[in-house]
Write a structure and sequence with these properties.
Elements: E1 16-20, E2 23-27, H1 31-57, H2 59-73, H3 89-115, H4 118-125, H5 128-138, H6 146-162, H7 166-174, H8 182-206, H9 209-227, H10 242-264, H11 271-280, H12 282-293, H13 300-318
Antiparallel strand pairs: 1-2
Amino acid sequence: MVNPLLQTPGITAGVGIHKNSGQRQIHVTVFPILLGLLLAFCFGTSDYLSKGVAGRIGGYRTALWMLTLSAVGVLFPSLVLESKLAVTPFMFLFLLFVSVMTFLSFNFMYRAYDVGALSLTSPVVNSYPIFSVLLSVFVLEAVLPALAILALAISIVGIILVSTSLSALRNRMSLGDFTPGIRDAFLCALFLGIAFPSFGYASEKLGYLLPAISARAGAAAIGFLASKPLRQGAGSVKDIPWRRLLAMGVLESIGVASFSIGVIYSSYSGSIPILSTFGGMSVVFTVLYAIILLKERVEINHVLGIAMIVVGVATLLYLTG
């Protein structure tokens, strides 16, 4: 039965390449693209807010409490989104894997934002779509037309350029030391690149609820269980900026729901890598906040990166036919 969401005007459900009236046409559904933009806004705003939180209570505690708060938020969409509660032993282990990968990625992300400059660590963190696309295509066997892959590649390069401060990077290199936070940011990109398509695969098989719980409540539980072996305590709740953390939790919950909806209700097999790539575009919003609110200077690579992202997005939208 065709899902009614895919019959909405303007949402194309075509997949891959086919012939129509003697002409080759490439169709990519616009549905995950629109949800990907919402995802980018939510995650980009959350990242911007997290800089101050991580600097105050540390990266590990930020990951713990943000995942805990968003675990409550992700429960509400389950009231309207389809879910399957029958879990095989394999899927149980896979959900546990999603929890571990998610917590590791958030831990290293907030550690990177804590010790390093946001404009330098953010591009590395948001390069995770490279790992997500590779994993989706070669492991999950997602089908993407060649032109769509090129558009995603252009967007990824744009993501890196738009969030990189070349002048600050040159200053760091001139000092002869390593940029603080870069190692943590790279580890975050690696784990996040695995977590996103894994979460998408679980959502395809089980619907919304169980994968969402694994990616938030399960990840938070992993963090609390590992806190003592890693000598990382949850600390006192009195010194935690709850308002900002609550805002981050709400944004993260909306982002998780957007990703799940795009995977569950789209018949296009390339939805996972597209959503993952648009998630990486969250850094555009982070940079805009820095420029507008923090009065940071725009460099030529920012302009070039934004142009490449616009071209990449426009190309994907053109492919919707």
